[in-house]
Every structure is written in structure tokens, then in C-alpha cells.
Structure prediction request, 77 residues.
Amino acid sequence: MPGHVLDVKVAPGAEVAAGAVLVVLEAMKMEHSLAAPWAGTVKSVSVKPGDRVEEGADLVLLEPLEADSLRQPDAQD
Prediction:
């Protein structure tokens, strides 16, 4: 959804844990915290506070800490 960037909580080079807040947006008169889907290293940040963003815009590029961190564990019975 389109909105305005209220705060950027990370900088390039930072290591973040899964669930860490990366960016705070204001959209539809509400604040939305965008969190890291996995642990990783911030490669780039494309926005700054005050920027208007559109739906689908790339805000933060996050590289996983481990190549396998996005894979689902094998089911073991």
C-alpha cells in the first residue's frame, strides 16, 4: 500500500535478527512496522524518513546470514 516513511531503523552493513523492525511506514492513518523475515545483513536502504513510497517499492535489501536460512526444515517423523 502507498504510504510515507516515518523512520528507518537500520543502515547498510547492519546485521539484524528475524523479526527486527527495519522501516516504519504511515499508511491509511496507521503506523506499520516492516520486520525482517529472516536474520540477515542489510545490503542497502532505498528510502529515508519523509519519502513517499508506492505499493511494491523496494525499501531494504536484506541478504540472509546463511544460504539455507530460507529453506524449510525437512519433515522428520
The mean pLDDT is 90. Residues 46 and 59 are 5 Å apart (CA to CA). Strands lie at 3-8, 15-16, 21-27, 30-35, 40-45, 52-53, 60-64.
